[in-house]
Amino acid sequence: MKQLTSSQVRTMFLDYFKSKNHMIEPGASLVPINDDTLLWINSGVAALKKYFDGRVKPMNPRIANVQKSIRTNDIDNVGYTARHHTFFEMLGNFSIGDYFKEDAIQFGYEFLFSPNWIGLDAQHMYVSVHTEDHEAYRIWTEVIGIDPKRILKTDDNFWQIGDGPCGPNSEIFYDRGPKYDPENLGERLFFEELENDRYIEVWNIVFSQYDGKEGVDFHEFKELPQKNIDTGMGFERLVSIVQGGETNFDTDLFLPIITETETFTQIKYHEKEMAFRVIADHIRTLVFALNDGALFSNEGRGYVLRRLLRRAARYGRVLDINEPFLYKLVDSVIEVMHDFYTDLDNRPEDIKKLILNEEKRFIKTLQEGEKLLLSAIESQEGVVLPGDVAFKLYDTYGFPIELTQEMAQERGVSVDLEGFDQALEAQKERARGSRQKIESMGSQQEDILNFKVPSQFLYDTFEVEATITGLFVEGHAVETLHDKGLVALDQTPFYAESGGQVSDIGSISGGHIVGVSKANAGQHLHHVEVSEPLHLGDTVHVCVDTNRRILIRKNHSCVHLLHSALHEFVGEHVNQAGSYVDDQYFRFDFTHFERLTPQTLKNIERRVNEWIAQSLPIHTDIMNVEEAKASGAIALFGDTYGDVVRVVSMGDVSKELCGGTHALSTGEIGVFKLVSEESVGSGVRRIVGKTSLGAYETFKKAEQEIELIREDLKLVSQKSIIERIEEMRIEKQSLQEKYDLLLKDALHAKIQTWLNDVNVSKEGLNVLWVQEYNADKELMNEIVDKLRDHVDLLFAVNVNEPNVSFMVSVSPKGIESGYKAGDLAKELAQATGGNGGGRPNFAQSGGKNVSNLNAAQSQIYGKIGI
User: Fold this and answer.
1) Does residue 310 sit in helix, strand or coil?
2) Angle at CA 404, nearest 5°, toward 400 and 407?
3) CATH 3.30.930.10 fits 6-245, yes or no
4) Which of 208, 470, 745, 847 has a C-alpha 20 to 30 A away from that of 241?
């Protein structure tokens, strides 16, 4: 076997498929662009769905890629097993209606086993096929020549997620030998599909040949008009086999990171392998995800990253690393990966800062978790700590279950491990359920897929005579269209929805064009509603809604100016993450790790308006894509371009590859008004803006609101709103001071009255029940502070229908008599439909049914003998 580095394996894969006339598709960002069905890009095919369901025709039907991916449905297995990862690379080759089973199988076999390429020993090859895929079986046995005794037939080899393209699959396994077969089970491991480290799957070919329907037997699926190949190879697995690593972690992809981690501790890798593996895996995920614009947060992608960091930091503690250290591993990850992922060199310091800040936050959270654990243990003394409490400590505060057990055991409390495992499994089930539609695709429409008649889009034209070249109703080709359907023309001035810009609308002879989309081969399909029938071959007059188109192109041109202003005032790391442009407004999504300050937003708005006022010329050049990029034109991350592209320039302030419609000069835009800036996801922010008439209407609305405020404040023309607000602030401060004094006097009087109502329990304890209505938390705290030193058992109750909250205080004398605030608060809460608890001397709880409050008081008073 050849001695190859991971970098050489990756390069060899791409070189092999280049030699087989494949187009190398750039890997997509881990943060999906314009795809709300995905949390992360999680496979090689995830960014290619548009090709598989026929929406878009690729420039070359043969595609290969290296796709960075994240999967987090099974985080807790990372480190335990040899091949589980959160971040990994998928190497894939794809055929979109081109080659099929025989070529796909031969490609996989040749790349893995030919001495000209990877050169694995073919005598160690095993294969699986679907039980009824006789064609794949024939190819393996007759064309490749593999011994049929090495082929597993199984019903499990069928790939389908939801509706759309699906089909049987065939996998290539590699036998690593008896060293990885401690029980000497041999081929039983493979044919009985037992969990093992000997027979490793390295290649999976999906033969996408059916139009799947959820809940329907696959024998009833229709054959796809365009059959596809989707091949995926786990890069880390292949590198492990090539380099002879015992696990994926024992390769040059992970060992440099593990070695660097060893410098922070006295413990060595072989002593606590799992901890080192978790840290190495998770730091790779963090670096790549943060580099692609994701951020730590409490939901979505950000929650995933936060959980990964905390898990890695927890295992740092296992290695006796008790201070922030993960940020110090960023350089190691970049050093291992930057040859191929050159963009990792762009912002390493930003990534380190984000990780360090999150590590510091986690240390604080751990301290809070320790308080919660100790409180929970105190309230469960001598009993069992509930599994849901242990899971909350694990999931929210990052406590390893082992740490919870250790701290509980020191205090004579055991942990409900069965309940913990149930809560953990429920979380995994939620994660699995949330990814059911991750890779589902749309069904192919055969007639539209096979429609090849070309059409021409006419930029900056608003009406034309055109010939009907195609008519479709519900995806089927027809000769005559009577009501609603799709119309293809030999030429059209109508822009088809693309790149975030909405389509044009307008008129067609005998009806209306209500939208325009693109067919598989790029032709414009006009969505029409007609009162007179249209026939194939008719000549029709089509006219764009001119006023709407002009407003759209003003907004679109402003998007380009905004992009340039963001680069100037926020940073060159800003990438477009989606956009929407219509005649009313535009929105621009971009990658950035924090909200923009008010001053930055003012600077951006002013700069864009300065460029508009300069009336910069807007012109379009058609050029070779490499020439365009060399000229400084911005190519949007994740977009695929043909050999010839349109480059839209606005003076010397903006130059982008763009197929949309634009104003003739920036002056045509008129004015730009920034409406809002907000977060729309982890590491993605959104600016909404308006231009021209839309901006004017926004200004007028603000003017009207100001007038209404002036009228409400009864301002004379000589006085500004700011002056009046300052006067009102001073008046409010004066009134607040008077109110606070009156409240203090009233509370003092109330306290004297309450203390006159103290009851005495059977043990001689002073007991007081205080009840308020709709009081704020600050007032209730003050009431407790004023009263707790005067009584042994204090019950401060706040009624806010239908809810009720309790604050319970118990003096040392009360605790000696056997009462605990936590128990009393919990009993009151449960009697009113809630829950809660706390320390023996003080506790808080809440109920959801205030109608049971009197019964709850009677229950407690009966318990303490009043």
Assistant:
1) helix
2) 135
3) yes
4) 208
Mean pLDDT by 10 residues, the chain (866 residues): 90 97 91 74 82 81 94 76 88 95 97 96 97 97 96 95 89 96 95 94 95 90 91 94 94 97 96 95 95 80 87 90 95 96 89 92 80 74 76 75 73 84 77 46 74 91 96 92 94 93 95 92 92 95 96 97 96 85 94 88 97 96 87 70 85 93 96 92 84 92 87 78 84 85 79 89 93 87 90 94 93 94 92 85 91 93 90
pTM, 2 dp: 0.66
Asked whether residue 662 is marked as a ligand-binding residue, the answer is yes
Q: What pLDDT does 435 receive?
A: 41
Sign of CA dihedral 112, 116, 121, 125: positive
Is 512 in contact with 543 (CB distance < 8 Å)? no
φ and ψ at residue 34, rounded to 5 degrees: 55, 40
Residue 471 in contact with residue 508, Cβ under 8 Å? no
CB 238 within 8 A of CB 207: no
| Residue 376 vs residues 14, 185, 420: alpha-carbon distances, Å | 56, 48, 15
Give 170's strand partners: 205
Q: Where are the domains of the chain?
A: 6-245, 254-375, 380-434, 456-544, 549-701, 757-864
556 is in an annotated binding site: yes
Instruction: Name residue 805's beta-bridge partners.
Output: 798, 846
DSSP letters along 26-71, please? PPPPSS-SS-TT-SS--SSSGGGHHHHTTSS--SSSEEEEEEEEE-
> Hey, what are 243's tokens?
């380099």
Q: Are β-strands 759-760 and 766-773 bridged in parallel, bridged antiparallel, or unpaired?
A: antiparallel
pLDDT of residue 375: 78
CATH topology of domain 549-701: Threonyl-tRNA Synthetase; Chain A, domain 2 (3.30.980)
Helix 692-713 × helix 721-755 angle, to 10°: 60
Helix (H) or strand (E) holding 407: helix 401-410
* 658 annotated ligand binder: yes
Strand partners, 593: none
Residue 560 known to bind ligand: yes
Contact (Cβ atoms closer than 8 angstroms) between residue 554 and residue 696? no
Q: What is the largest CA-CA distance in the chain?
A: 102
Closest by CA to 489, choosing from 515, 454, 459, 461, is 454
**CATH of 757-864 given 3.40.50.300, 3.30.70.270, 3.10.310.40, 3.40.50.150:** 3.10.310.40
Cα distance between residue 450 and residue 54, in whole Å: 10
